[in-house]
Write a structure and sequence with these properties.
This protein is mainly β. The protein contains 1 helix and 11 strands. Strand 6 and strand 7 form a beta hairpin. The model has no long low-confidence stretch (mean pLDDT 89).
Length: 127
């Protein structure tokens, strides 16, 4: 991470590209350019499902300072702290560092925004 001052940035929807560059191959990611203008201190992506999915996800946790996501479209079902949680458009989740979780299923039209600090962080598989 850098100590450089933050820079101004705009990410236009008309120029948006989605790529399978993130954690899961079942999703596509649109980088909003926040990591570049904050020296890696923050990251933001729009994540969308390529198709409806059930299972095939691994339990994991993240090593980071901050992670939250906001559901823009569709729904997302996951297990965290022994609870099965389903979030839908308009819902948000803050997930503390080190909290094991697993995705159970998502709709084929799922779209969410994820904001993290730092932009790059470790993901650790959990048995």
């Amino acid at each position: 991470m850098s100590d450089q001052p933050f820079k101004f940035a705009v990410s236009y929807a008309k120029d948006a590209t989605f790529a399978p560059q993130g954690l899961w191959s079942h999703f596509e990611y649109r980088n909003l350019g926040i990591a570049d203008v904050t020296g890696g201190r923050f990251g933001a992506h729009i994540i969308r499902a390529k198709e409806a999915r059930e299972a095939a996800f691994k339990r994991h946790k993240h090593d980071l300072e901050f992670q939250m996501f906001y559901i823009l479209k569709g729904w997302f079902k996951f297990e965290c702290e022994g609870q099965t949680i389903t979030v839908r458009a308009g819902d948000s989740v803050h997930q503390p560092s080190g909290m094991p979780h697993v995705t159970i299923a998502c709709s084929d039209d799922l779209e969410l925004i994820e904001i993290t600090s730092p932009a790059e962080f470790a993901t650790i598989d959990v048995e």
